[in-house]
Amino acid sequence: MAAKTKLELTWIGKDIRPRLEPRILIEEPEFSYHAKARREGDSFENLLIHGDNLLALKALETDPAVRGKVKCIFIDPPYNTGSAFEHYDDGLEHSLWLGMMRDRLEILRNLLSDDGSIWITIDDNEAHYLKIICDEVFGRGNFVSNVIWAKRTSPANDAKYFSTDHDNILVFAKSLADWKLNRLSRTEKQNTFYKNPDNDSRGPWNSVTYTGNKNRNERPNLYYAIKQPNTGEDIFPPDGLTWRYGVETHNANEADKRLYWGKDGNSRIPRMKMFLSDAGLVVPRSIWPSDEVGSTQVSMNEQKALSKNPFATPKPELLLARILEIATNPGELVLDSFAGSGTTGAVAHKMGRRWIMVELGEHAKTHIVPRMQKVIDGTDKGGVTEAAGWKGGGGYRFCRLAPSLLEKDAWGNWVIRKEYNPAMLAEAMCKHFNYAYAPSTEHYWMHGSSSETSFIYVTTSSLTFEQLRAISDEVGENRSLLICCTAYEAKGESLPNLTLRKIPGAVLDRCEWGKDDYSLKISALPMMADEEEDEAPAAKKTKAGADGDLFDDGE
């Protein structure tokens, strides 16, 4: 039997991966905001990051307080439609778009908790390519659903071919075995399907079929006669079907007067009464109508109420509320790394979730900051405010990415950037070596830890051997210390609880320095390798296809 091949999506530049610098975050207090009073359950450590979202994700990935702690990620990335939007470029070349998404999804997966999920809105232009990338990053077995959001309430009559009335929402779990969704609250519309035509004392009810989809050969125990109460006739299931329940369960249903035989009681096939008083939460469905979760028109109206310069492609608050209701519980952490106008943070805040948003554009300040201030003040009356019972409260910190840690001096040597003070340097080195930055008030040499017995000390001093021995004595035999310094004096005597690294040399080859923009302009498209240039034209066509991508048989 032939070996099963693995299909992979391949594109020009797929093997080229950015070597990201783990930046630290610097708060800009003039844009941070919090309520004037504290209430029980309020969160004040929400985070709005202004800067390149790939670098921001790397900063979060190297933060032990965030890595593996995010319960729900929602992203609304550029759809790559070729359209021009005021607030971001939505026309990346196809191969660049694929690389952009892959690089970000890999970090996003690391940020998710084991029981977390990611939700991605996308249209049909890239949805099927994105699904395959997600299969590679998250594992095909962790695919949950492709939810259809009916975003339009009327057709686009100027469409050349079809009126595009929906967007896709791809849903993946970090681990499907660990992920548990929340069922949805019942809506008034759903309750209207329950009536009481026979004045049953138990109240309104709806009915469901009493037949199953098996035949008598498959399930002979479900094929039997039941008595029609009006005529006394023995009724068997229709040809090719069985009853839905066994004899004992049927007898119990009959005794509980749950069978409905039609208005006049003479139907030949009963139905089963399901009472509203017994109805619980609702299983989510894969098609979400605009009258339930909002439309693009609704989201634009929400934007106009918030800003004189509305964001071009917002999502309605009801849509985010539906996602967060399914995927999270109060107090859990939500992340959006394509924050746009800030809808995710606004809805998460109103619903009592903690949140992190990342946005590169200036609308982080012009749109998101004033929006979140209104939410915190309780003056934003739109969206899901009333449904969530939101009255205001909480707060957030506004941070920007720090500049690159290293720069070249006048002689071309890599040196620590002048803007880095000792605290910033210590935090940056903690990120590079995967330590949690937590300076001790008791020990000057304890800037962070990777475990209960493993610590890091960062200094720009040159340490003598006597200083190192004194530190070693204080650390003790049962603890270890990584020391990052500019120089140190070594002697033959061993200090086994100390590990010494010189800076900047210790981190010089770890990443790209001084690169602040990973938004992937078209000019960044990598050149085709020379050996591919020499191939026969037919081979080139097979390899690259029309757009430089293909399905390739993997190993």
Automatic annotation (TrEMBL):
Gene Ontology biological process terms in this record: methylation
Molecular-function annotations in GO: DNA binding; N-methyltransferase activity; site-specific DNA-methyltransferase (adenine-specific) activity
Disordered as annotated region, ranges: 529-555
Start and end residues of each DNA methylase N-4/N-6 domain: 70-367
Family matches, as Pfam families: N6_N4_Mtase
Similarity comment: Belongs to the N(4)/N(6)-methyltransferase family.
Protein name: site-specific DNA-methyltransferase (adenine-specific)
Organism: Paragemmobacter aquarius
